[in-house]
Amino acid sequence: MFKFIHAADVHLDSPLRGLSRYESAPAESIRNACRRAFENLVDLAIEEKVSFVLLAGDLYDGDWKDYSTGIFLSQQMGQLDQHDISVFTVAGNHDAANRITKALDSPANMTILSSRKVETIKLGDLAVSIHGRSFGTQHVDENLAAGFAAAEKGMFNIGLLHTSLDGREGHAVYAPCSIDDLRSKGYQYWALGHIHKQEFVSKDPWIVFPGCVQGRHIRETGAKGCVLVTVEDGAVSAVDKCPLDVLRWVLCNVDLTDAAEMREVLERTRKALEKERPSADGRPIAMRIRFEGATAISGELAAYPERLEQQIKALGAEIAGDDLWIERVENAAVGRLDLDSTLSDDNAFGKLLKEILSTPDNPDEINGLKDVVTDLRQKIPSEAFGADSVLNLDENQTVERLVEEAKNMLVGRLLSVEGAK
């Protein structure tokens, strides 16, 4: 009997960009979160006395800013080496973008499998064969799995691969392959990487995405970590989920259906926050609040989004202090009855509302929007539009969301003004 850890997508020293730009964000929890999650992985490996660790790509997050990343990795590998734990890894798309690592030697107990061809490493004392191939370039669109050799008889065969498999929402296509491609090799376990959400694709054979070790933005909610695999008599006997994250992302939906006043909105939000807190298992939380449902005060909420967000953030600070940070408040609440009544009036105000609401949902159909976006890019620092930003204008869904929020805000303010007359 032996154990091994399967992890992937560590993204060492990747900043939690969705947090670090904001005032009042939990700086201590953000700083070096990916390093601290990796330290948890090393501690787990030592505690469980695993025979080896598998890292299925994207150990790094692209090129290092300095050599401290390499020094940190060497320190962690050194701890594993003191307990005779070897590490086997393949390079993923982010690793292939790293230039500094190509000029450095890997730690003695860490083996990076070849990018030129599929490489097989045999661990004779365990009767294990590890088959894997690294990315040689950042963009790999060929089916690397097709080049893996058939399983070796009398051995526990592991396939180590960074791949999008047959495609997953939110992830670019890299080294695509099918489940049948993997099954055809006859391996007992496929250790995959690239998909940041943990997924047991198959149990016959085991085909596993362990997910990333630390969520970095709101699209990576829930527990993040690795899997601990136990092998007995040449077969997998257990695959245990092991959380490693030090800060957890949570999306909290608050139903405002029939809420009649702001006091009720705050009370429902309070209950929703208290309900979600246990899901973090004692970790600090970065939370996005999303209001939904039909309410008569939807216009009031939409009219002044910044004021609403500050009220909710203050509520979060009251409930949990530094252990809960409200990353963003999204208002998707609607108030159809009041709006329909106003739209039925054939006057200038009603016509204005109709014109606002008739704005196309597809940003490409809005005249002049591209020019506005171009102008915006020139006025705001480029880092504000990063891949993990709520202002990532390279994503069509982000622009669609901003258009929808603008429509809601305009309608809300107009209804508030009209109602005050």
What does this structure look like?
The protein is α/β, with parallel strands linked by helices and 421 residues long. It has 2 domains: 2-243, Metallo-dependent phosphatases (Purple Acid Phosphatase, chain A, domain 2), CATH 3.60.21.10; 248-419, no CATH class. 33% of the residues lie in helices and 21% in strands. The protein has 13 helices and 15 strands. The strands form 3 sheets. A 6-stranded mixed β-sheet has the order 4-3-2-1-11-12, with helices on one face. The chain has a 6-stranded mixed β-sheet with strand order 5-6-7-8-10-9, with no helix packed on it. Strands 13-14-15 form a 3-stranded parallel β-sheet, covered by helices on one side. Strand 9 (199-203) and strand 10 (206-209) form a beta hairpin. Helix 7 crosses helix 9. The termini are far apart.
Stated plainly, the CATH topology of the largest domain is called Purple Acid Phosphatase, chain A, domain 2
Level of helix content?
25-40%
Number of strands: 15
Oligomer: single chain
Overall number of domains: 2
**Any idea what the CATH superfamily of the largest domain is called?**
Metallo-dependent phosphatases
State the order of secondary-structure elements, H for helix, E for strand: EHHHEHEHEEEEHEEEEEEHEHHEHHHH
Structural class: alpha/beta
Number of helical elements = 13
Could you list the spans in which at least 5 consecutive residues all have pLDDT below 50? 417-421
In angstroms, what is the radius of gyration? 25 Å
